[in-house]
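As a representative case, the lines below give one protein's residues and fold tokens.
***
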Amino acid sequence: MFQLSINDLSQAEFLSQYWQKKPLLIKQGFRNFQDPISPDELAGLAQEECIESRIITNTNDKWKAHHGPFEEFDLLTATHSTLLVQAVDHWHPDSAQLLEPFRFIPNWRIDDLMISFSTPGGGVGPHLDQYDVFIIQGEGKRHWRVGLAEQSLEEVIPCKDLLQITAFEAVIDAVLEPGDILYIPPGCPHEGYAVENALNYSVGFRAPNQIDMLSSLSDYLIDQELGKQRYSDPAIEVPKSIGELKANEFEQIKQLLLKQIEDESSLKLWLGQFLSTAKHDMDLIAPEDAYTTDEVLGLIEEAGTVFYRIGGLRAIYQIQAENIILSINGQNYILPIDQLDDAKLLTDFPSMTSDQLKSSMKSPIFIETLTTLMNEGYWFIE
């Protein structure tokens, strides 16, 4: 397990002083760091159809972006090239362990683990991200420059599918070595180039915008056949101008929309689905023959049984009145409030033991839910 040390700051101090405020270089954030994956293994993942990957090259200031899967890696040249693979935590359990030290940030905010391998001079150019990111230096060295968000910058498109920015003033200018970590808040310009062959691990965080959320909410309302109340105006009067939308009419329409959004029950159910849905494919481990609830009870009764959660699975819960809304990969499960500790086992930990689940044997609803989750391939027994 990786142990995170944030420059002698506590997690609370880091959040209050740096999170979404200013960048931070954490020297030896992981002491004695050992790469959980090799460049060859990363290239193997980039050959898979279901895994998103790219190769970015910069030869004589001519940028090119190539999308995987890749059968060959002749594009990955001896210099000025980078292989990037998204959501490696979904497919490589050892790499997924890198996310665990950062789970002092709520689960729903963590996005995925992107891993890149760069040859000397390789990078993606100066750019902005609209989300928080921790960049962990693996093998090799990489030169990073990071600026503050309060800068006027122009966007540049050097080639299709690659967005960069113009030059910026840096407040961090350093060469990272294995175990060093760079925290970059949203909107802070940054660029990194490999000094030598280098592996980098990027822990990214979700930051949904209003368009994403409103679009998803609209789809949810349609699927659930909600939001059908129509506008009405039984007290309408003859207008002085038939072309005017009056202030009171505007207010009535606004209240009609807000009424649906303020329906806490449906909003929480939608939000659970939205925030728990994975952006990328996952390596599901479904049993050949579906478990029955009796078989799951039997597994819990066996001493030493460990239930593992697959990498990349988003699991969150909300409390609503006397119930728990448990949301797993876009599906909601309703549990009684007295099953809160068991819900936390599913959402807060990458694995759980039979001893931890002993008390849950008395709850048919929880056992049925766990059985469903195992049959979906979200939890498994090694």
About this structure: Residues 247-261 form the longest helix (15 residues). The radius of gyration is 24 Å.
